[in-house]
Amino acid sequence: MLIPHPLLGLRDASEFVYKGDAQLMNRPDGFADDADAQMVDYLYPRDNPRGVHKELWFHEQGDRSWLVVTRDTLTHEILGAELANPARGATS
Amino acid sequence: MRNLIEMPASSTQPIVVGDMRLTMVDDCALVSVSTDAMRTAGVIELLSSMGYPLPGIEQNTGSADQGAFWMGPHQWMLWRDYRSDPDWAAEIDLQGLAATTEQTDAWARFDLSGSALVSVMERLCNLDSARIQTGLATRTQIHHVGVFVVVVDAVAQIYVPRSMADSLVHAVAGAIRANLAVA
Q: What is the distance between the terminal CA atoms of chain B, rounded to a whole angstrom?
């Protein structure tokens, strides 16, 4: 499986580590009044979509960028990848 | 204090098979430069004025005796001859724009050259072989070890964590022989 790294082009999936649903980036405010309920929702229930899924991959054996990879869970087709932090792309 | 004995990272090289040659370069000084998106432009300008032009993504600006290569977003490694100035790392003052860390003893550098360079490299790692040419600098893995591959003047500089030096030599020697078997 090849992942189209936005900076480096196609790279082998074996260089990457899978983290989980891209929603993990949206960490709730731990000081909110309903922080406990939000944290339970953030930590435990997971969507398990049949089809297109956005997920976090870390290029551990490469440039150590975090990517948001769009993948079809039915076919394993990778539909795209972008830097999880767009500011990281403003680089040379 | 007892006298310290200078020991090489690997004593199992050079490997020479036909015109393929793997040698350790033990006089290579390394300094890493790490900053963030806000300060990258300033770091590039400052280092350029100091004589170290920084390369773009997945590139290196190496010459025969010094250079720089891209490690990742906002991170570079500078290298040059160690013996001419052992205190080089301490002399690079980036005025708070970036963190500099001496990396000389962290990595062992091996230079691989020869007419079958691309064939051997494609047996060693999963880089796109079309990209293995002068100017490249990228991180990948060889036998499960994270390495930097930097190609300068058709010579592949392979930077491996120093404690894994012999493992790299073993891997490269095997790939050279495997390539010879099918050549």
A: 53
CB A74 within 8 A of CB A48: no
**What are the chain B neighbours of A10 within 8 Å (beta carbons)?**
128
pLDDT digits (tens, 9 = 90+) for A61-81: 999 999 999 999 999 999 999
Predicted TM-score (pTM) of this structure: 0.91
Query: What is the architecture, at CATH level 2, of domain B15-182?
Result: 2-Layer Sandwich (3.30)
ipTM score of the complex?
Answer: 0.86
A92 chain-B contacts, CB cut-off 8 A:
40, 44, 54-57
CATH number of A2-89: 3.30.2270.10
Looking at the partner chain, which of B37, B56, B73 has a beta carbon nearest the beta carbon of A63? B73
Residue count of chain B: 183
- CA distances from residue B19 to B124, B131, B134, B172 in whole angstroms, order as listed: 18, 22, 18, 14
Q: What is the DSSP letter of A6?
A: T
